[in-house]
Amino acid sequence: MTQRRDVAEPSHFVLNTLRPLRTFFDTAGAGAALRDRVGPAWSAEVFESVSSTYFMQLELTKGTEKSLRRLVRQPKRQAGFSSILSRGGSQEENPSAADERIEAQIVLDVETLGRQAAALGVDVEKSEAYQRLKQSAAAGLAAEG
Question: Could you give the 3-state DSSP secondary structure of residue 8?
Fold first, then answer.
């Protein structure tokens, strides 16, 4: 999603994250019968869990990014892995432009996840895990984890 193009759509995994739950409640039979009675509560529980897991993964990614940036800034003592890290990525692309696109993609993905949960009846503004996830996404990858 970051190869020299603007961020225009959410990542495919985000579009599929809540799909099984939505499909269950939209299918005739047990799902449809349970939709009104337990749909919002179940959806809120699933959404809280997904948001919490997504937040933890984003924080791990930030920590890894911070470590890699530190390694790349170290003086080159030997050829090998450190020289690969320092040359990683596209030679044509400005690293800060790539970072900005990645951060924009993460924000778009988090917003999309929230919209999908709201469509399932979840009050996303009351979700503590989602609020932490939104704040983390808005802080960007370069922020302290």
Answer: coil
